[in-house]
TrEMBL record:
It comes from Hermanssonia centrifuga. Residues 313-332 are annotated as: Disordered. GO terms for molecular function: oxysterol binding. This is Oxysterol-binding protein. Belongs to the OSBP family. GO terms for cellular component: cytosol; membrane. PROSITE patterns: OSBP. PANTHER family: OXYSTEROL-BINDING PROTEIN HOMOLOG 4-RELATED (PTHR10972:SF184), OXYSTEROL-BINDING PROTEIN-RELATED (PTHR10972).
Length: 390
């Protein structure tokens, strides 16, 4: 008998405890990357990893506000404020909605996700194009643009997972570059690196994410934000704590310091004022209805799997998921036999990103070089004129 939708929110439904125990044993037995492991259906999220770049802009007014800053320092503060405000959606939203952290659906190569946030109150329209550019390892490339504000975010994200000390350790690979068109015709660039993750609570059947170590936001003007993440048992004793230091060009000294809880509120220590507050509602991305989507778009591709997960019908979810995965395996076999290679639709892969190398030197980025995926400007919204509201 299937669980009801209400029961799906429980960390481990009673009927699935033996399956969860087996999953934990399989995790503990793997010494390398965990990405190839198959998670039990009840721990799956009904959302594909290809949708995750939408979390970058679920507060589009903060993204648009970057363009309104008038000094180099103020732009770096605005970028930091926007970035911190994206973390709640990216790393705690499934925990809050579903009772515990859920594993996103592992996208197939070529999977697509398109969306936008409309122009409201003069903030401009923000468009999103996402493509799954690799399956093993899973790599997601994305491009977010607000042309009327002169803001362009390009990036990619991959995960390398391992098991240590009772937790799943996730090293996020990839980076993002934000380009800002300035009123004088110049451009300012920001290199954004990604935090590491630690998934705790496994043995209790209630997984949740903590961010760990440091990430950086480096401006081409020299301003650098260094963000330190801590969890329970460190300097605050609270989960989801961060401290961000903004230092001016050529200096390691803090000009501004911000700290608090990235999933609730934080303060500007200089002024004492609230810096970020993400307790209010976020703004979901707008997408086409499923019937009008291309077969490769996430919500159409995974629609039957997602429905099974949401309904607690894990048998259907597992069957439909296996069908998609088997089709993908056969597609790869056919390509291998024919000597062909899957062609990316919206992005071009380059081995070394010159922007990452140039800006990464400021803070001695590790690794010193990274590959990237360049957007081809051929997405569904590229022909749509974007006009700011009066």
């Amino acid at each position: 008998m299937s669980e009801t939708p209400q029961e799906v929110g429980e960390a481990v439904p009673a009927a699935q405890k033996s399956s969860w125990a087996s999953f934990l044993k399989s995790i503990a037995s793997v010494s390398g990357d965990l990405s190839s492991l198959t998670a039990p259906p009840f721990i799956l999220s009904p959302i594909s990893l290809t949708e995750f770049p939408a979390y970058w802009c679920e507060r589009p007014e903060l993204f648009a506000a970057i363009a309104d800053a008038t000094t180099d320092e103020d732009r770096s503060v605005a970028v930091l404020k926007w970035f911190i405000s994206t973390l709640k959606g990216q790393y705690t939203s499934r925990n809050e909605k579903l009772g515990s952290e859920k594993k996103p659906l592992n996208p197939v190569l070529g999977e697509l996700f398109y969306g936008y946030w409309p122009d409201l109150n003069g903030r401009g329209r923000t468009n999103l194009v996402v493509e799954q550019v690799s399956h093993h390892p899973p790599i997601t490339a994305y491009y977010i643009s607000n042309a009327s504000k002169g803001l362009y975010l390009q990036g990619h994200n991959a995960q390398k997972t391992s098991f240590s000390g009772g937790s799943i350790i996730v090293k996020q690979l990839g980076h993002a570059t934000l380009t800002v068109d300035l009123p004088n015709g110049d451009k300012e660039e920001f290199l954004i690196t990604l935090p590491r993750l630690r998934i705790d609570g496994l043995w209790y059947g209630s997984p949740y994410i903590e961010l760990t170590e440091n990430s950086f936001i480096q401006s081409s003007t020299g301003w650098l934000s260094t963000i330190e993440y801590k969890g329970k048992g460190y300097f605050s004793g609270k989960s989801h704590t961060f401290k961000a230091i903004l230092s001016p060009p050529g200096s390691n000294n803090a000009k501004r310091t911000f700290e608090g809880l990235w999933h609730l509120t934080s303060k500007d220590l200089k002024s004492g004022h609230t810096f970020t507050d993400v307790q209010g509602p976020k703004e979901e991305v707008n997408v086409a209805i499923v019937e009008e989507m291309d077969d490769w778009e996430s919500r159409k591709l995974w629609q039957h799997v997602a429905k099974g997960i949401r309904d607690g019908d894990f048998e259907t979810a597992s069957r439909e998921k296996s069908k998609i995965e088997n089709e993908q395996r056969q597609r790869r076999k056919d390509e291998l036999a024919a000597g062909t290679k899957w062609e990316l639709k919206h992005f071009e892969h380059i081995e070394s990103d010159p922007t990452y190398e140039r800006l990464g030197r400021f803070f001695k980025a590790n690794p010193p070089t990274e590959d990237t995926y360049i957007y081809r400007h051929n997405g569904p919204y590229d022909e749509v004129p974007v006009v700011a509201a009066a």
